Amino acid sequence: MRIGQLAERTGVSVRLLRYYGQQGLLTPRRLGNGYRVYAEDDVRLVRYIRSLLAAGLTTAVIGRLLPSVCERGGVLRPCTPELADELRRERDRIDEQVAELLASRQLLEEVIEAAPRHAP
Q1: How many Cα atoms occupy the beta-carbon half-sphere of 32 within 13 Å?
Q2: What's the pTM value of the predicted model, to 2 decimals?
Q3: Residue 72 parent element (H or E)
Q4: Cα 77 from Cα 81, distance rounded (Å)
């Protein structure tokens, strides 16, 4: 299928699909005229990529992890203990970011509360 068809089937823009290709996440076959041709498996691959991005992973991390991700029962799963370990590290990194954001929010809340009030 061509890139427009893949975009339609996955709900992902052509621009993003090209970006995934630049990042090494998708590797379409090229025709002699330069057109990208995608396989049926690429539909599932794009869905994996979207799921992993939604989980907070970067495209660089996804590129390292994709070869070790499987699907069982419609759910992405690590296929190796090493992948599970890396996913735990990513989860911990996200937890740290969440804690930093919560601390920033609390500080902002304190600044807002200290602001003068409008007279009624």
Answers
A1: 0
A2: 0.72
A3: strand 69-72
A4: 11
**C-beta separation of 76 from 66 below 8 A:** no
Instruction: Tell me the sheet residues that pair with 69.
Output: 78
Q: What are the structure tokens assigned to 4, written together?
A: 């427009």
Structure tokens at 30: 């090229």
- The pLDDT tens digits of the residues spanning 5-14 come to 999 999 999 9
What's the rounded Cα separation, in Å, for the pair 83 and 68?
7
Contact status, residue 25 vs residue 62, Cβ threshold 8 Å: yes
* Whether the Cβ atoms of residue 49 and residue 25 lie closer than 8 Å to each other: yes
Would you place residue 83 in the very low, low, confident or very high pLDDT band (cuts 50, 70, 90)? confident
